[in-house]
Amino acid sequence: MKPFIQVQDAEMVFTTRKGRFHALQHVNLDVQRGEFITLIGHSGCGKSTLLNLIAGLLTPTSGGLICDGREIAAPGPERAVVFQNHSLLPWLSCLDNVLLAVESVFGGKETPAQLKVRARAALELVGMSHALHKRPHEISGGMKQRVGIARALAMEPKVLLMDEPFGALDALTRAKLQDELLKIVARTRSTVIMVTHDVDEAVLLSDRIVMMTNGPAATIGEILDVGIPRPRVRVELAEDARYVAARKQVIDFLYTRHAHVEQAA
Amino acid sequence: MVSAAFHTPGDATAPAAAATDADADADPVSRPAANEATMPIEAPRPAPARTPIDWRGIALKVLPPVISLGLLIGLWALATMKGGGSFPTPAATFDAAVQLFSDPFYRNGPNDQGIGWNILNSLGRVGMGFGLAALVGIPLGFAIGRFEFANRMVSPLIALLKPVSPLAWLPIGLLAFKSANPAAIWTIFICSIWPMVVNTAVGVQRVPQDYLNVARVLKLSEWKVITRILLPAVLPYVLTGVRLSVGTAWLVIVAAEMLTGGVGIGFWVWDEWNNLNVAHILIAIFVIGTVGLLLEWALISLAKHFTFEED
Predict the structure, then answer these.
(1) How far is B300 from chain A (nearest CA, A)?
(2) Domain covering B121-262, topology
(3) Confidence label for A52 from pLDDT (cuts 50, 70 and 90)
(4) Domain-by-domain residue ranges, chain B?
(5) Among A85, A239, B184, B289, fewest CB within 10 Å belongs to which?
(6) Are A12 and A26 within 8 A, CB to CB?
(7) For residue B218, what are the CA distances in angstroms to A48, A165, A171, B214?
(8) Does the structure show a pLDDT above 70 at A101?
(9) How far is B148 from chain A (nearest CA, A)?
(10) Per DSSP, what are the bridge partners of residue A222?
(11) How many CB atoms lie within 10 A of CB B151?
């Protein structure tokens, strides 16, 4: 089967005031339709950069990226992004935040009433029907992230790109949202690429874990096939031998072979 | 780069509030723990049926300004107790004010009109000059903030012209318009445009990249980017600029009218000085202050209405 997303020898060099920074080199990755991929690595390894390349928010210095047979040249709603800090517009209600996304994708084809139905359905999917008319500052961090996910899902994207979506949440809220994300993804059969630095999150959610070496000039070090059948249940997994093995392999990569040396800035 | 000037009366308290917020964020565990520690002690006490009126709090708020005002009037009364000097006592000034405000809207020819007319004329000039400045300044600020080229083009000019005393522009206005009234409006225009240009530009430059990324991912049209993201994000900055502008305009109008004459509070002050009517000058100072305060207050409440809470 032809891969759904292809990253071909991507290289990224940033030109900053301090000079050139070589973030990524020789990145090659194929993602199949319906796959759940996590990118894991130490901070500064360029995993967010890779996600932004796929999103089209950045253009690679060299190499190419293809999504569904077309080159990725700019951001677009078919590659919806869930941002780390939710990035909801504070002057719009939850419903209007989602509606803004829905309008931009389906605005030309559907009536305002149909658009509203879509926005409400997306919020319902993430369990936020009770806060349609609340502004982002009136709801908790976990709820904001839910609305951010609803905004992305409402666009019916070909692929969902998530940049440490649960990084800013407390452990309990994070676990709850991970479980719900598992359910939603199972239902919508979305292709997901998620950036994380949480080993358990990576093993729990992904089909494959892409482990990245340390920057500068980071690249993909190893790809782990998790191979745990779905549906996955958090409580049962804790003692599952495959889970433990996968977890150990990622930890081994991150802390033994590619231990992060904190550089003196 | 242009830099913003924020002089909010509330600014003094803002950093303190931010600091406590940051403390709460940095250490989310300690607070609940502290609460739990104190809870058992407080629990047995019966909760009051309704919150009692906080007399102490009200007194602490009301007393200081009353005391300071009382001290001012007291000192003024002490200094003028002997009488005989040209400086009026508080009582005499109050009597003059009562007389003045009993008929604020009389007209005895072009140079002798009631204080109401004088204030309204000044406010009209301020409104005119300020309105024109807003029409030009806010779009200009948007352009500077959005386009680096415009920023580099206009910033040196702003840096050069901003520190010029508004009154230095008055002769240019007189020369160009050959008349006193447009010249005064021109002066208001030129002095009140800078805060709006600068604050709008800074606001546009500070629109979080996240919001613009959202716009790019959603593929919003340029029109939607402006109406749904830029305008709401920049509005608080614009309103800060507007507030500073109105403040400056009200400062300048008195000086400008002293020079141009006509009907207006500034000219009235100068006229009363020529009449050696010091009581009226004191009343004028009080009136100018009050009107300035009201303008500021109105714009702050407007700004509050349009600001949004981050996070």
Answers:
(1) 19
(2) MetI-like fold (1.10.3720)
(3) very high
(4) 121-262
(5) A239
(6) no
(7) 19, 18, 30, 6
(8) yes
(9) 17
(10) A211
(11) 18
